[in-house]
Design goal:
The chain has 239 residues and is α+β, with helices and mostly antiparallel strands. The chain folds into 2 domains: 67 residues, Winged helix-like DNA-binding domain superfamily/Winged helix DNA-binding domain (Arc Repressor Mutant, subunit A), CATH 1.10.10; 158 residues, Chorismate lyase (3-Layer(aba) Sandwich), CATH 3.40.1410. The strands form 3 sheets. A 6-stranded antiparallel beta sheet has the order 4-5-6-9-8-7. The protein has a two-stranded antiparallel ribbon with strand order 1-2. A two-stranded parallel sheet has the order 3-10. A hairpin with a 3-residue loop joins strand 1 and strand 2.
């Protein structure tokens, strides 16, 4: 086994230990020396595995103490960023999967036209996808795209990354989003497509996504199970 494969194997094994409770939250992992002996490898390889765990948000390195295990029961969801699920998925380091339940062109009603500021729109793409993480469906994304901005879309693209397709293939200049976060009662659709585990309410992040000319081209409702996410932001006080 190469050294690069070795550190990834150690990363996966320690991560599984954190997720299964072998290494409890707010406790210190075994030292680099102890881990070196456990995995019969060099401290350099252990250090690379720990660095990756820290980058993914599973541990915090504390000088003079070691590696503190962080609370991984809730995943950090960036409020201020405009991040695709695939990009979030890559940063989480968890087993995840996208399930497309509904896809196609629709004739929008007045409410949808208002959300997208498109009173004359004749057709929109509708995409309904569940995001399964660690075997549980915990996010339901309902996306609507103006057809005049996104002329072509496929189910295969929706199963992978729509933003990657829009930016790399269609060269759409996606710029910014206005976001609204509310807590709503679970709908029948939520109960059908998500593993709501008895919860009566759900966190809904509404996104109005704009191109660089400030026109809206996408409206999204991203519906999150209450117990699985913390919504994070960074704020700086103006002097």
């Amino acid at each position: 086994m190469t050294r690069s494969n070795k550190y990834m194997q150690i990363y996966q094994e320690v991560l599984e230990g954190i997720q299964e409770g072998k290494y409890p939250t707010n406790e210190i992992l075994p030292s680099e020396n102890e881990l070196s002996e456990m995995f019969a490898t060099s401290r350099e390889t252990i250090r690379k595995a720990l660095t990756l765990l820290a980058e993914k948000g599973f541990i915090q390195k504390i000088r003079g103490k070691g590696s503190l295990v962080l609370d991984v029961s809730k995943m950090s969801f960036p409020v201020s960023g405009l991040v695709s699920f695939k990009e979030l998925q890559d940063s989480l380091g968890r087993d995840s999967h996208t399930i497309v339940y509904d896809f196609g062109l629709i004739e929008p009603d007045d409410w949808l036209k208002k959300q997208l500021q498109a009173p004359k729109a004749k057709e929109m793409w509708k995409v309904v996808r569940a995001r399964q993480i660690q075997g549980e469906r915990i996010i339901l994304d309902k996306d609507y795209f103006l057809k005049d901005k996104v002329p072509f879309l496929t189910k295969e693209v929706c199963e992978n990354s729509i933003y990657e397709y829009l930016e790399d293939e269609l060269h759409l200049p996606i710029s910014f989003a206005k976001k609204e976060i509310v807590v709503e009662e679970c709908t029948e659709e939520d109960r059908k497509y998500l593993d709501v585990e008895g919860f009566d309410h759900i966190v809904v992040v509404k996104n109005y996504v704009h191109l660089d000319n400030a026109s809206i081209f996408q409206y999204t409702e991203s519906r999150h199970r209450l117990d699985k996410f913390r919504f994070v932001d960074f704020a700086r006080r103006k002097q």
